[in-house]
């Protein structure tokens, strides 16, 4: 992956979590997402957004993340997570 | 993708703009309300859902322009980023509520670069409010990303992909043909005037097809809440208890009585039901029951509920002297007990028992003088109190006695032939610089 500023990565992770592609970090254990989970989440977002599924936060992906959009999540339960409350 | 939460079980949904954009120089309140009306109409045009605007805090869909964190778990984030959201149908108090980020530069009929097109975002959010989720389909209005203005709200056509998804949820609205697909022309009903909703409503355009109250026979007449209503085609006139016309211009039935079908071109009979004072409208083989001016759930229903003939109905009214409901059709009449909800035995009877009345009435109504009035063509008949015989001196002219028309007055735009004494020619024009001269003869 091209070198990303930590801030960009944080923004990306926040964005993926906000719109349902990544489970929010567990507030109790502080466990962060695994690289694999992050890659899968990015691919899911790219696929949903009609981008090429590279699995990395490339320019097109970051650009789409900055496009104005609806607040509602795109995915209700990211792969492998259960029990997230639906709105 | 996100699984749909729910769908509305009811079909009549109320909405209200509770708060408006604070800084938008372009978008006045009436324009915002008109845009919300048209954004909802995009969905009600094709799904069996009806939206009507209400005042007060009971609306199903409360619409707010708000900023940053506004306590619903979906904080806005200033210009750009997240711009709006809506809550899915359900039983919760917030179900259907829709929020727009007041930090956005909301625009209307502006180029893409000038800001966020409010109509486009509203159509998307109301898609959520009726139960649709985000989709990855590039041409869908339900894509999560803002895709710029979608053109004139009066001409906007929902992408076929979105029509199919809402049809899967609610079925097809009966006025939409199944063959309707992309590129078909929208229905020809005249939409309310957008942007022409200024504060003084009198500038709303007067529809060309409005009938002339002084020359038209009426489809239906009724006393409702003590006032008289004269229905003709898609319009009606209203008279106060003192028989004063509320307005010389007719109002559109559709806009006042919410829930009648959009393509309704006229009524057969109307009456106010004794007991619960709900209003019953008849058209063909169907009837609708209204509480105030909103239709009740579950209507229309067949008139066979009343035990009436399948041909339809001419007239319906409640006779003041026995509080029974009388239905007329052709040369027969029925007596129905609205308290027991059943037809009295021994009916139908021959309408000639009502001496002096013509067959095939247009309608009938009770009036505050305790008499019953029967209407047909341009004339009306009066029957006093508990009589069953027309009073002497009738029929008289509806236009003259009820609708404040003089012999020479007419509301029809073309007045040729209205002035027989000059052989149908216009009187010479005394105006300078082309202004019409008019005089008031009474």
Question: Would you summarize the structure shown here?
Answer:
The complex is a heterodimer of chains A (87) and B (442). Chain A is mainly α and 87 residues long. Chain A has helices at 6-18, 35-49, 59-65; one strand at residues 69-70.
Verbal overview:
The complex is a heterodimer of chains A (87) and B (442). Chain A has 87 residues and is an all-alpha fold. Chain A is built from three helices and one strand. Chain B is α+β, with helices and mostly antiparallel strands and 442 residues long. Chain B has a five-stranded mixed beta sheet with strand order 2-1-3-5-4, covered by helices on one side. In chain B, strands 12, 13, 14, 15 and 16 form a five-stranded antiparallel beta sheet that branches. In chain B, strands 17, 18, 19, 20 and 21 form a five-stranded antiparallel beta sheet that branches. In chain B, strand 8 and strand 9 (227-232) form a beta hairpin. The longest helix of chain B is centred in the N-terminal third of the chain and has 16 residues, at 29-44. Classes of the chains: A mainly alpha (87), B alpha+beta (442). The interface between A and B is medium-sized, with 20 and 29 residues. Strand 1 (69-70) of chain A pairs parallel with strand 4 (82-86) of chain B, so a sheet runs across the interface.
Question: Which features characterize this protein?
Answer:
heterodimer, A: 87 residues, mainly alpha, 3 helices, 40% helix, disordered C terminus, B: 442 residues, 5-stranded mixed beta sheet, 5-stranded antiparallel beta sheet, 23% strand
């Amino acid at each position: 992956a091209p070198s990303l500023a930590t801030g960009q990565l944080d923004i990306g992770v926040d964005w993926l979590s906000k719109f349902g592609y990544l489970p929010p970090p567990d507030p109790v254990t502080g466990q962060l997402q695994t690289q694999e989970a992050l890659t899968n989440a990015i691919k899911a977002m790219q696929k949903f957004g009609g981008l090429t599924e590279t699995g990395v936060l490339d320019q097109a992906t970051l650009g789409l993340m900055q496009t104005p959009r609806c607040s509602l999540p795109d995915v209700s339960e990211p792969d492998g997570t259960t029990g997230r409350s639906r709105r | 993708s996100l699984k749909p939460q729910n769908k509305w079980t009811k079909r009549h949904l109320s909405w209200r703009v509770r708060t408006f954009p604070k800084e938008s120089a372009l978008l006045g309140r009436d324009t915002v309300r008109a845009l919300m009306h048209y954004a909802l109409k995009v969905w009600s045009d094709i799904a069996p859902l009806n939206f009507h605007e209400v005042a007060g805090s009971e609306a199903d869909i409360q619409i707010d322009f708000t900023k940053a964190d506004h306590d619903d778990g979906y904080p806005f984030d200033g210009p750009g980023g997240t711009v709006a959201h809506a809550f899915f149908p359900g039983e919760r108090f917030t179900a259907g509520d829709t929020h727009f980020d007041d930090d956005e530069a909301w625009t209307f009929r502006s180029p893409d670069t000038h800001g966020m097109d409010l109509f486009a975002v509203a159509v998307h959010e109301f898609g959520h409010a009726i139960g649709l989720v985000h989709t990855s389909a590039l041409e869908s209005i339900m894509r999560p990303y803002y895709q710029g203005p979608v053109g004139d709200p009066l001409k906007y056509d929902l992408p076929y992909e979105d029509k199919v998804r809402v049809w899967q949820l609610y079925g097809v609205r009966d006025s939409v043909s199944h063959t309707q697909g992309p590129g078909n022309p929208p229905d020809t009903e005249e939409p309310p005037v957008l942007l022409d909703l200024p504060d003084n409503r009198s500038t709303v355009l007067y529809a060309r097809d409005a009938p002339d109250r002084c020359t038209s026979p009426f489809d239906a007449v009724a006393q409702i809440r003590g006032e008289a209503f004269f229905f003709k085609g898609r319009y009606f006139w209203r008279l106060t208890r003192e028989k004063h016309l509320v307005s010389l211009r007719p109002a559109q039935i559709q806009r006042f009585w919410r829930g009648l079908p959009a393509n309704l071109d006229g009524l057969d009979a109307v009456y106010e039901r004794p007991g619960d004072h709900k209003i019953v409208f008849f058209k063909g083989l169907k009837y609708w029951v209204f509480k105030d001016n909103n239709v009740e759930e579950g209507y229309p229903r067949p008139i066979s509920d009343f035990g009436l003939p399948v041909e339809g109905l001419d007239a319906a009214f409640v006779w003041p002297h026995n509080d029974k409901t009388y239905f007329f059709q052709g040369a027969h009449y029925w007596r129905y007990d609205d308290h027991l909800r059943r037809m009295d035995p021994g009916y139908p009877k021959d309408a000639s028992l009502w001496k002096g009345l013509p067959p095939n009435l247009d309608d009938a109504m009770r009036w505050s003088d305790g008499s019953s009035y029967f209407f047909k063509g341009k004339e009306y008949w009066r029957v006093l109190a508990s009589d069953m015989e027309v009073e002497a001196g009738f029929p008289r002219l509806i236009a003259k006695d009820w609708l404040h028309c003089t012999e020479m007055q007419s509301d029809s735009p073309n007045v040729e032939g209205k002035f027989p004494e000059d052989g149908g020619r216009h009187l010479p024009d005394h105006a300078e610089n082309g202004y019409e001269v008019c005089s008031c003869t009474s």
